[in-house]
Amino acid sequence: MLNDQLTINTLRELNSRLAFEITELRKENVEIPELKKKFSKVEAENIKLKAENVKLKQALEEHKSRFMKLEQNNKDIAVENAELKARVAKLEQKQLQTDEKNNFIVKSDDNAKGIDQSSVNTTSTKMKNSNDISASNISDNTSNSDAI
Question: Alpha-carbon distance 23 to 78, whole Å?
Answer without folding.
Answer: 79
